[in-house]
Amino acid sequence: MRTEQPKMIYLKDYKAPDYLIDETHLTFELHDDHTLVHAQLVMRRNPALGSDLPPLELDGQELELLSLALNDRALGEADYQLTDSHLTLHPDSASFVIDSSVRIHPETNTALEGLYKSSGMFCTQCEAEGFRKITYYLDRPDVMSKFTTTLSAEQHSYPVLLSNGNPIASGSEEDGRHWATWEDPFMKPAYLFALVAGDLWCVEDSFTTMTEREVALRIYVEPENIDKCQHAMDSLKKSMRWDEQTYGREYDLDIFMIVAVNDFNMGAMENKGLNIFNSSAVLAKAETATDAAHQRVEAIVAHEYFHNWSGNRVTCRDWFQLSLKEGFTVFRDSQFSADMNSPTVKRIEDVAYLRTHQFAEDAGPLAHSVRPDAFIEISNFYTLTVYEKGSEVVRMIQTLLGAEGFRKGSDLYFERHDGQAVTCDDFIKAMEDANGVDLTQFKRWYSQAGTPRLQVSEAYDADAQRYTLTFKQSCPATPGQTEKLPFVIPVELGLIGAQGQALPLQLEGEAAAGADTRVISIDQAEQQVVFFGVAEQPLPSLLRSFSAPVKLSFPYSRDQLMFLMQHDSDGFNRWEASQQLAVQVLEELVGQQQRGEPMVMDQRLISALETVLADEMLDPAMVSEMLSLPGEGYLTEIAEVADVDAIHAAREFAREALAQALYAPLWQRYQAYREVSRNSPYVAEAEHFARRRLQNIALSYLMLTGKEQVLEACLEQFEHCDNMTERMAALAVLVNSTHTEARAKALASFAEFFKDNALVMDQWFSVQAASTMPGGLARVEELMQHPAFNLKNPNKVRAVIGAFGGQNAINFHQLDGSGYRFLADQVITLNALNPQIASRLLSPLTRWRKYSPERQALMKAELERILASGELSSDVYEVVSKSLA
Ligand code: B3K
Ligand code: ZN
Prior knowledge:
By secondary structure, this protein is an alpha+beta fold. The protein is 42% helix and 20% strand. Among the domains are: 1-198, tricorn interacting facor f3 domain (Immunoglobulin-like); 453-555, Immunoglobulin-like (Sandwich), CATH 2.60.40. The chain has an eight-stranded mixed beta sheet with strand order 6-5-9-3-2-12-15-14, with no helix packed on it. The protein has a five-stranded mixed beta sheet with strand order 17-18-19-21-20, with helices on one face. It has a four-stranded antiparallel beta sheet with strand order 10-11-16-13, with no helix packed on it. Strand 5 (64-70) and strand 6 (73-74) form a beta hairpin. Zinc ion binds at residues 303, 307, 326, 329. It holds the Pfam family DUF3458.
């Protein structure tokens, strides 16, 4: 908890460290009621900064100092200064050794940062600033050290003892304890340190690298989960091969380990050689994990593995540079997932997520640039902007340089900076140097927050056969940034003729027509692009593959959007046309609802989706994406003032209208696919994911018709399927239906069968917490009384409270303010237990400016109540105070 006014930390104040730590030797004595940590730090004055000897200020929090020595000389209280965040001592030579012993209490650590216990095992989470809760240290990423770690624990309860690097020695003691020593040959910052001790089993495999080295692969889990590791292991091997083939990156240690833990604040952590994962991001098998969970496991395993180069071998100089490793690594994992599955579908999913969530962040009170310039609590900056927009920025570099140029740049980056802690500027410089280009203006993407708008208009001169597109870019003000300079916006585009054919493109200065899809770099506030030799009035296909994270507008008519859905050669833009058409139709319905008029659905959306559904050649994954109407979250984001009730009513009305009109083809698809699922074993691969996805979307539409045969089919699927994907989908539609009896029965039998599987119960919780049926808050409060609920477990908090606040707008935004009050109460409780989780839960309240004055007042009042509730963690304080500012 905060004892002083929280301080803002600025990028402009960055200073290199006064001292370096060449070697770090750690000894952990793990006990059930305390842990002793001894640290020996081999240090020296940073030679780059001079030869004087300024005071040495080590970071340390919640540590009980037991002893301290400088060069073997024990220090007394007069020799150092101790506060609750620092230990200051006074070196008397340029090279010296510090020995410290501290006592810590992992057994009562509910913040899940530093060393803590989860389901009886010891584990760590040090990024960003958790290592300072383990020992006194220079806890900053630009201090890199060679670590040796010895851990000892009681052998019976903790047979497995792990840390980073390679195991070099181990032994038993007479008192029933044992120990192991690990040595990591690579220099690393403290945030990549990890330790695990527990009663774990492991699945083993091996990987032969591109230079024929054997690497042992191990996934450690609690014994009852040993049957759920194969998918993660397969994903790991695919990732290792992919990174060799795509980026020329080889793994560097003799062993790579993943450990699954049940209590974890996020998805996973890339500690060197010893990745620690939320069990939800490792464990997957057909019977207990959905297709989406399988895909998430594959993506997170890949993401953490890819960090070994983008993050660990080349790390961040300071935390303002977080996107250097996170944006780049998200980009790398998205390329990987695209290659393993369908690139178009992966792009659609990423863009839908970005536009719903990151665009909202970028338009709200917590908007910040990809490289922020100030923060109070770094944990609050593991954001969609740093991760997802950061990935979009890297993607734009690739679009501008081409795949080959980008690879040259990444090769140079890894070669030039291996073993260093660097900045986003260093990344860009490598891209520039490898390609002989100047990215100075492009770098505004790192420093300017907010989502740029790109307005496009057209003019066709039939006589001159000239077609002109005019681009106007602007960017709204964000906190602390009123004036924005033009961005470099790569716009990938093509022109389409009346027969649906791609028109040849001839730009100014070109003697003849060239490729029929181009990347045009828009770098001025207003800019014209002229196409020559255009024989007919074209329809432009703009921002193909969503080539830049901007809000594009072009005055397409609904008929033109239907035309693009049919004829655009870019798969992403065919989907985009379907979404824009649906947005126009839904916005019209919202207006009718608000005016109290009867809602009347534009038949064109129905007939467009009918065509999609009738196309047997179309990838079922694409059909699914097109059939999925824009979510309430996205409709909220694009609305000036979001009318929660009207948006929900309009979208439900449209879904029902589609279900009625398309009943026959949906029913036919559903039955055919269910038949396939019934007669073939579950396979965790893209084409099977796609089939089940469409099957389940069809089922959710069909249920809206209330037909008896659909309910029967739903129950048949729920009871007789062999996998969680079909079971969960059937349960979800029952939970959101008016078949109260069937719903209660299904929920009860599901809980009875899966009561001992925490991850399955998380799904059971969240499907109910997200149910838009009336009475949501009462349901959520009841769920929190369920024996399987536990406020100290982040997965449970996310499944119940997170799902209610984030995915259940109609219940959360009840006009009596009860949803807001509930969420604020939970934040206040969690603030004391786990500040990072408390701060994340706040997110729906931070968006208060989006809603009607009535709701705004209620939401604001809850934020104010939190602020006044007592001693706040820096995490919660920062989010609440910035939201109210
Ligand atoms: N690097 C970690 C995130 C750590 C978050 C700390 N609050 C996971 C990842 O992005 O790979
Ligand atoms: Zn990451």
